[in-house]
Design a protein that fits this description.
The complex is a heterodimer of chains A (about 625) and B (about 90).
Chain A: H1 14-37, H2 42-63, H3 69-74, H4 81-108, H5 113-137, H6 142-149, H7 153-162, H8 164-185, H9 190-240, H10 245-248, H11 253-262, H12 298-313, H13 316-319, H14 328-365, H15 367-370, H16 375-381, E1 385-387, E2 401-403, H17 408-415, H18 420-457, H19 463-487, H20 492-506, H21 508-516, H22 522-540, H23 542-545, H24 552-576, H25 582-592, H26 599-614
Antiparallel strand pairs in A: 1-2
Chain B: H1 4-46, E1 50-51, E2 54-55, H2 56-93
Antiparallel strand pairs in B: 1-2
The chains are: A mainly alpha (about 625), B mainly alpha (about 90).
């Protein structure tokens, strides 16, 4: 007889499994390093370093396939806190953090710290304000929680439609980044790489839903962390003789300042027009790393910080994982671990930017006497760097270098003249993180469309059609994203700013009211959702014509204004509309109780015998 | 009359739990957000001081506040678990 999953305990061998996976990944890198010394070609090393881990992720996904609804949508509610934290951190940071954020730090230096700080503070806000209560509610998706909290199918379907914007933007950005990495290292075009990534991510989701996503994502996070840490430690040892890049890059500030001065970078004067966030096309680095508030002033820094903090706290892809651990306390611990992992990444990222900038401009400063560095041709071939003889003197100087923002992380091992295997390792690491994040966004999007829209239309409690709807939604969303990437130019960092701003404006106020204010009614929730979403849409579309949300800071400011208006609308509609019903009050009281089974599971258990009796 | 006493006590336990939960949430969040905003506003001045070879304003925004956030969050988890445990014990007594 099959035991109900809520009584199952976590697999006691998980530690051994992931120890083996980590050892396998490290062994692969070591073996390929040996193979490189034995004369293997760069192509063979890159193919092995990228394709073998991809096969491993697919193998894990196939091993964790399931047809159980609770396993598919909530990973059986038995994921240990640390493993859930791995995927939460990978989803928040993603390929956007790995490539676009490190690139933004390369260009903006000090001013780019607002984004990382916002991610970390967002986890704190989510862990304190939302996550424990969402775990107690036990809904599979964020719209499902709102629907159950206010007993409203309309609120559920409306919020499901609204979450498409932030989730789809992030999904497109992650798939684009993963495809760009594959296109550089494997012999295939970018468009074919997009299709490959979309198929891979969809296959992971279809095989086991949240369950396969959890276990595949954990392996991907480990691969990403190992690749990033190993490469940075090697560069740190080469430059500073110490294996702690987070602390040693400060010793490079003097050399970096010299290299920046040689490249013609002077502190920006107020009023100088610099794009607050660097674009995806190759561009010149003009701002010294350590100059504070040169491209983004203090108010802009605060706005960007709050937009990312509120957006992270209310991001549907992160909150969808609020029901996967075994208890409220475990879910809270899981968020704390995720915050620690994100903080570790954010602490590490500036070291990557400093090392890359120092190596690049130090070599270029020596170019007139020592000749152009060898890495220039490699990075030009990968389209990560372009040169242009701007002053027409027939020489390429440091000020004539155009650098692709999203390629800085990939360029670091080449700039440091490390063995090629470490470049492939860095690529495999970034790809793994991007795949984990893309999987989370795809599943959140598809599960919501299947469960909150199809599930509301067809409420028959039969497992297979529900899963089939989810499979179809996953495939359709992956295909639609691939088509979107064929026809639209996506800037990963800009998409992230817009997505986090939409999440902050649309979902943060309504969640705050629904969880912390018993007087909040369905009318208040709808008013809050509608106001936040509409104001953001107007700011991005109509406001864009008048320069309102043209820049990242402008979009962030629009999100904060929209969130404030949404909170006011929610409070006003709740106070001046009908009082909350007894059912809503009872749900609120039960949700605030830390002990006991998830409300959704209890309702399901009560509904199943009733349905059996009717049959 | 006798039925009202436990209900009142249960309500008191619930209200006390919610008040303490709110207090610890406000403390945690305001500590973090105030720390960030104050550091941003004084970052330029703080950058005149140095810590571990970093300008202090940069260090706080790049590392210090993140380490602080980790400690505050784990402190919050511990305190909130104690508050939740107290409610469970009190409800059992009621």
């Amino acid at each position: 007889m099959r035991t109900p999953s809520r009584h199952r305990t976590p697999n006691p061998h998980l530690g051994a499994y992931y120890g083996i996976i980590t050892a396998a990944f490290v062994s692969l890198a070591v073996l390929l390093a040996i193979a490189e010394q034995l004369g293997w070609s760069d192509g063979a090393i890159a193919r092995s370093m990228i394709l073998l881990p991809l096969a491993l992720y697919l193998f894990i996904a196939a091993g964790s396939r399931t047809l159980d609804v609770e396993d598919f949508f909530a990973s059986g509610r038995r994921v240990p806190p640390v493993y859930n934290a791995l995927l939460l951190a990978a989803t928040a940071v993603g390929g956007i953090g790995f490539f676009a954020y490190t690139g933004a730090l390369f260009f903006l230096g000090f001013d780019g710290l607002a984004i990382g700080l916002g991610w970390t503070a967002g986890f704190l806000l989510a862990g304190v304000l939302f996550v424990p209560y969402l775990r107690k509610a036990g809904a599979y998706t964020l719209p499902a929680f709102l629907g159950q909290r206010f007993n409203s199918r309309f609120a559920r379907t409306t919020s499901s439609a609204m979450q498409v914007v932030p989730t789809a933007l992030l999904l497109a950005a992650e798939i684009k980044i993963a495809a760009a990495v594959i296109a550089v290292f494997l012999p295939m075009s970018f468009w074919l790489a997009v299709l490959l990534v979309a198929v891979l991510v969809a296959a992971t989701g279809i095989l086991g839903g949240m369950r396969s996503l959890t276990w595949t994502g954990s392996a991907e996070f480990i691969a990403g962390a190992v690749g990033l840490v190993v490469t940075l430690i090697v560069v740190s040892v080469l430059l500073t003789n110490l294996p702690a890049p987070q602390f040693t890059y400060s010793e490079m500030f003097g050399s970096l300042q010299g290299a920046e001065t040689a490249a013609g970078m002077a502190p920006l004067k107020p009023g100088v027009l610099v794009p607050p966030l660097p674009a995806t096309a190759p561009m010149q680095a003009v701002k010294p790393f350590m100059q504070s508030f040169g491209a983004i002033n203090e108010p802009g820094f605060i706005v960007l910080f709050f937009a990312f903090a509120l957006g992270t706290a209310a991001l549907p892809s992160l909150l969808a994982r609020s029901g996967v651990t075994s208890s409220v306390a475990d879910q809270r611990r899981s968020t704390a671990w995720a915050l620690a992992l994100v903080a570790l990444f954010v602490i590490t990222a500036p070291s990557l930017a400093v090392f890359a900038k120092l190596l690049m401009f130090r070599d270029m400063a020596l170019a007139p006497t020592a000749g152009l560095p060898a890495w220039l041709s490699t990075l030009e071939a990968w389209q990560l760097v372009q040169t242009s003889d701007l002053n027409g003197d027939g020489l390429i100087g440091p000020g004539e270098l155009f650098i692709a923002r999203d390629g800085v992380a990939l360029a670091l091992p080449v700039l440091a003249r490390l063995p090629y295997v470490l470049t492939a390792l860095m690529a495999a690491a970034g790809l793994a993180i991007a795949l984990a994040a893309a999987g989370s966004h795809l599943f959140t999007l598809a599960a919501s469309l299947a469960d909150d829209i199809y599930g509301v239309l067809d409420r028959t409690p039969i497992a297979l059609p529900r899963l089939m709807a989810a499979w179809a939604a996953i495939a359709a969303c992956a295909l639609a994203t691939a088509v979107f990437l064929f026809i639209a130019e996506v800037d990963a960092l800009r998409s992230a700013v817009t997505a986090f701003s939409f999440a902050a404006a649309t979902f943060f106020p309504v969640l705050l009211l629904a969880i912390w204010w018993p007087r909040c009614t369905v009318w208040g929730a709808l008013a809050s959702l509608g106001t936040g979403f509409v104001v953001m849409v107007l700011a991005v579309t109509v406001g864009g014509l008048f320069g309102v949300a043209e820049t990242a800071v402008g979009t962030g400011l629009a999100a904060l204004v929209a969130a404030l208006l949404a909170a006011c609308a929610g409070i006003g509609a709740s106070l001046y509309g009908p009082a909350p019903t007894a059912g809503e009050m009872a749900y609120y009281e039960e949700m605030r109780k830390p002990e006991g089974e998830a409300i959704f599971d209890l309702a399901q258990r009560r509904a199943t015998p009733a349905a059996a009796q009717e049959d | 009359m006798t039925a009202e006493v436990p209900e009142t006590t249960e309500t008191a336990v619930r209200d006390r739990h919610q008040l303490r939960t709110l207090a610890v949430a406000v403390t945690t969040i305001s500590a973090m957000l105030c720390g960030v905003v104050i550091t941003i506003l004084y970052a330029v001045s703080l950058n005149r001081l140095w810590f571990l070879h970093f300008p202090l304003g940069f260090y706080l925004l790049a590392q210090g506040l993140l380490i602080f956030a980790v400690f505050v969050t784990f402190w919050y988890v511990r305190v909130q678990e104690r508050i939740d445990h107290t409610r469970s014990v009190n409800e059992d007594v009621v």
